[in-house]
Fold this sequence. Notes:
475 residues, mainly beta, Immunoglobulin-like, Jelly Rolls, six-stranded antiparallel beta sheet, disordered N terminus
Amino acid sequence: xxxxxxxxxxxxxxxxxxxxxxxxxxxxxxxxxxxxxxxxxxxxxxxxxxxxxxxxxxxxxxxxxxxxxxxxxxxxxxxxxxxxxxxxxxxxxxxxxxxxxxxxxxxxxxxxxxxxxxxxxxxxxxxxxxxxxxxxxxxxxxxxxxxxxxxxxxxxxxxxxxxxxxxxxxxxxxxxxxxxxxxxxxxxxxxxxxxxxxxxxxxxxxxxxxxxxxxxxxxxxxxxxxxxxxxxxxxxxxxxxxxxxxxxxxxxxxxxxxxxxxxxxxxxxxxxxxxxxxxxxxxxxxxxxxxxxxxxxxxxxxxxxxxxxxxxxxxxxxxxxxxxxxxxxxxxxxxxxxxxxxxxxxxxxxxxxxxxxxxxxxxxxxxxxxxxxxxxxxxxxxxxxxxxxxxxxxxxxxxxxxxxxxxxxxxxxxxxxxxxxxxxxxxxxxxxxxxxxxxxxxxxxxxxxxxxxxxxxxxxxxxxxxxxxxxxxxx
Length: 475
């Protein structure tokens, strides 16, 4: 097994130093210290007079962790980030003998930091990205081509205003509208929170903090310990009196000191597909010895549902009590251009997202329910049949505490305002506490969603066929 990931600084060595374990094999080291900030490869001059190269051994180095090209032997950063700080040696084998290659992994609090938080490798090295919509990889929101030059901008003449040469920005090959349609999830490697317990980062775009945000979660339990959106979207006078902070970046800091010593990870989430529903990002630093002197204190918008008792049948699932036990999100990303927000109503015991017409947008969140009995649940959907209904008007089922989405579905059998019954098998989550989010992120004709008769407990599975089941849009 490799050792835990590490992060360090580069100190160049003098050229010409000889390294070898016998008199026959002599290599000239070029770079023999790994710096976590620069994420450099190690390099050695490989002369012609030491035979044909065979392989390297030691410290779990494997094929693919090194390369020999044009007389230069390189040990790759992909291997080096897996090592703790310290001094190391790997053994070189050729047809004429062997030699020891010594190197150092510098200590820059590597275990407390994520890899490539500033995207200075020019790609998503150190991050793991995935699609969250129907497996459509061509619509994946976090891709290498989204790493952009720091001086580029999508719409305005101001630069991204990030740090270094690169930021995570916008794929310049796409229009703004096409880029907004992309969705996805991007995760860092795990790190141990240290120092002051403050993390810092720069965010741009992300107009709606319910759909586009940076989340911090416990890497062991999955608990979402913080969720932060771009609260200064479209604001002026934040760090530049003349700049309009749309896709350009605003600095934030978040106090996570109550989680010092915990193993955490960063998730960058884009669940939206409308105007400014994407994220630009830079300078994610998870180790700060003291509280950063600059940056806006980030607001934690992670949903918390406090409930002393969690029943197996959702409270007010038929909306006979109006919107009782449901919480309407007040994130300003849902507001109209006039700063007005009025979306959900429950006339005659049915939830509707058209309080101000089909153009109304919003999110409403249920109380908790416990998956019990057969694990099958059902509910009725109506309307929600706009041109992009499965992206914009849908139901999300999430797990409490982690806030991870376990199921997402839309009204695939829509028939005007007629309510259609859908069944979902949640038996994989028996005993777990879940909740619903009803989302209307659309503005066109029939771009409103009706919901009624949510049943979350059947002692025995009801009779239904495949055509009655909800299709998971995350599959």
